[in-house]
């Protein structure tokens, strides 16, 4: 990230988990959580800036509601219209992962979501059980230093033994998870229980039915909720839709169907933008693609050293591949930086490329307590507990890897999602894992991008079939989830759905409002130049574009491993 945001890369189970760490999560924000009383009611206290925080008590095990409890960290931007006829209640959000922090998402993006959807709603989210500021919190390590020293980049083709190394690291992390699994607590960190926690949050707001917008893994959570409680749906937007059957089978085999298409858009848009706007330009998209292949081979043989003001390291094969893959998730945020970084890298300067995933150097606080940050462990616990048991050998995983690579070159990165569960502690797996069906009390709005690198639109079309009356809205853009690209069309459909319950017609495809590289060069308020390239937005539409841009820069849907 750039400016005052940082991407922390947390590595376990053989792959990287990337999460946006807010500069805004200051000592003031963290201190408030230690002072909040956990209650079966939402007892709000002011926190961060113009936000409210609370801790909600829920059963750790819903089969034993009088037993041990969990404390769910909940945050909201309250509606200024509460108590009036215009108030429309809370909308819950989940940022994906699994393991993404809803507290961080709203702390940084709550006002932008309110701008998109209207001041009629409370903007609400939470850290799922086992994650972030919720208690208990999953951790496989006794100290942050242990976690940092175990971490590294793992990409299959980075070394000749890459797949075996990823598998071997997963055995260690699985053993550490088992060591920290007192009283089989890990079995309670699953999507069904989180769905039930969401219902508790809704009811604590004094509502019966849920209003919800879930991204990526958040669509698995939403589809699980809709299957468990089909009569408790008021509004449900599932954005960047995961094939939930594939997820619960721990296959992660349907995600990359459009990933290579996303990279092709980088080549196409760089060519269309021209050399004055795209520094990695060549006279054809094919030439740009070959140029990247040549650079990748060169970096494999000769990594480039980098020293910045806050860290240092190498741009090697693994870092280059992971940086490109991360860029596919948010092209409007990253493609211009990627183009500049690749152009610089050809000349031996790796700084710009390195900064796509840069994090400050880890500094042990030596006994001083550090505030909670988002770590990969909670998300791993959720996905491995949710899914079918995995006990693949390295040889069996070779066949799995080849299957992924047939769909996309990015299979070398994605293998960690399944391999990471290969030594997970044995569990009974009694929680809900389908079927995903329901005659919901209000139809669901599913959203998919036409070139999403992690959740192809085919997932939305498949999942919608189990819920009569629901509609799939396509956004003609690359990137992961609708907020990865500026589309006033999509934003207006989402707003109308939450405000009035209206759905778009089946088959609608929303365009984006400006090409990727031109948005970077023109700026969202350069009206003259925007009209010159066919972009003519009114005042309110400009506000929507600004809100989407803020979300795109401040909030990244985290990788699922």
CATH fourth-tier homologous superfamily of the domain at 60-136 and 186-255 and 434-554:
Alpha/Beta hydrolase fold, catalytic domain
Distance between the termini: 19 Å
The biggest beta sheet reads: 11 strands, mixed
Helical run tally: 21
Q: What would the principal axes of the Cα set say about the shape?
A: globular
* Rg on CA atoms, Å: 22 Å
- Poorly predicted regions: 1-28, 524-534
Query: What is the CATH third-level topology name of the domain at 60-136 and 186-255 and 434-554?
Result: Rossmann fold
Tell how many strands the DSSP assignment holds: 15
Name of the CATH architecture of the domain at 60-136 and 186-255 and 434-554: 3-Layer(aba) Sandwich
**SSE-based structural type:** alpha/beta
CATH C-level category of the domain at 60-136 and 186-255 and 434-554: Alpha Beta
Work out the strand percent. Answer: 15-25%
Would you tell me the overall average pLDDT?
Answer: 89
What is the topology?
Blueprint: E1 6-12, E2 15-21, H1 27-35, E3 38-39, E4 45-47, E5 51-59, E6 69-77, E7 89-94, H2 102-117, E8 121-126, H3 144-150, H4 162-179, H5 191-204, E9 210-215, H6 217-228, E10 233-239, H7 244-248, H8 259-273, H9 285-301, E11 304-307, E12 312-315, H10 317-329, H11 331-346, H12 351-354, H13 376-386, H14 394-407, H15 411-414, H16 416-419, E13 445-451, H17 457-464, E14 471-478, H18 488-500, E15 509-510, H19 516-522, H20 527-532, H21 539-554
Parallel strand pairs: 3-5, 7-8, 7-9, 9-10, 10-13, 13-14, 14-15
Antiparallel strand pairs: 1-2, 4-5, 5-6, 6-8, 11-12
């Amino acid at each position: 990230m750039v400016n005052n945001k940082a991407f922390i890369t947390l590595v376990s189970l053989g792959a990287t988990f990337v999460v946006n760490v807010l500069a805004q999560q200051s000592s003031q924000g963290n201190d408030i959580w230690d002072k909040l009383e956990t209650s079966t009611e939402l007892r709000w206290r002011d926190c961060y800036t113009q936000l409210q925080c609370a801790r909600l008590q829920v059963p750790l095990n819903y089969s034993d509601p009088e037993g041990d409890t969990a404390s769910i960290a909940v945050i909201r931007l309250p509606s200024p219209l509460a108590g009036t006829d215009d108030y429309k209640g809370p909308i819950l959000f989940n940022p994906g992962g699994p393991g993404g922090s809803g507290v961080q998402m709203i702390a940084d993006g709550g006002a932008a979501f309110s701008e998109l959807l209207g001041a009629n709603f409370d903007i609400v989210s939470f850290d799922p059980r086992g994650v972030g500021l919720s208690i208990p919190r999953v951790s496989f390590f006794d100290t942050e230093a242990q976690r940092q020293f175990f971490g590294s980049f793992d990409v299959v083709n980075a070394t000749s033994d890459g797949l075996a190394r990823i598998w071997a690291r997963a055995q260690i992390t699985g053993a550490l998870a088992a060591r920290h699994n007192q009283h089989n607590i890990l079995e309670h960190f699953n999507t069904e229980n989180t769905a039930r926690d969401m219902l508790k949050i809704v009811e604590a707001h004094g509502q019966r039915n849920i209003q919800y917008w879930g991204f990526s893994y958040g669509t698995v959570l939403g589809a699980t909720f809709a299957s468990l409680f089909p009569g408790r749906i008021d509004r449900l937007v599932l954005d960047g839709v995961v094939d939930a059957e594939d997820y619960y089978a721990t296959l992660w085999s349907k995600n990359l169907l459009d990933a290579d298409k996303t990279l092709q858009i980088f080549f196409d848009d760089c060519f269309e933008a021209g050399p004055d706007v795209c520094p990695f330009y060549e006279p054809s998209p094919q030439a740009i693609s070959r140029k990247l292949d040549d650079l990748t081979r060169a970096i494999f043989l000769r990594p480039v050293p980098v020293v910045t003001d806050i860290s240092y390291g190498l741009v090697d094969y693994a870092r280059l591949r992971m940086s490109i893959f991360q860029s596919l998730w948010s092209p409007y945020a990253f493609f211009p930086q990627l183009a500049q970084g690749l152009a610089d890298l050809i000349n031996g300067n790796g700084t710009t490329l390195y900064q796509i995933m840069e994090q400050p150097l880890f500094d042990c606080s030596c006994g001083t307590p550090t505030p909670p940050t988002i770590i990969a462990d909670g998300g791993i616990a959720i996905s491995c507990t949710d899914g079918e048991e995995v006990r693949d050998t390295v040889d069996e995983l070779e066949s799995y890897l080849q299957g992924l690579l047939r769909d996309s070159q990015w299979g070398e990165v994605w293998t960690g999602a399944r391999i990471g569960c290969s030594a997970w502690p044995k569990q009974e797996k009694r929680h809900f894992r389908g079927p995903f069906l329901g005659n919901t009390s209000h139809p669901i709005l599913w959203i998919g991008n036409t070139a999403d690198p992690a959740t192809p639109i085919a997932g939305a079309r498949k999942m919608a079939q189990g819920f009569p009356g629901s509609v799939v809205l396509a956004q003609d853009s690359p990137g992961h989830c609708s907020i990865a690209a500026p589309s006033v069309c999509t934003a207006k459909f989402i707003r109308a759905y939450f405000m009035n319950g209206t759905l778009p017609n089946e088959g609608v495809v929303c365009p984006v409002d400006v090409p990727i590289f031109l948005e970077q060069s023109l700026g969202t308020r350069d009206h003259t130049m925007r009209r010159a390239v066919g972009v003519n937005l009114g005042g309110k539409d400009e506000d929507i574009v600004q809100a989407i841009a803020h979300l795109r820069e401040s909030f990244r849907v985290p990788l699922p491993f």
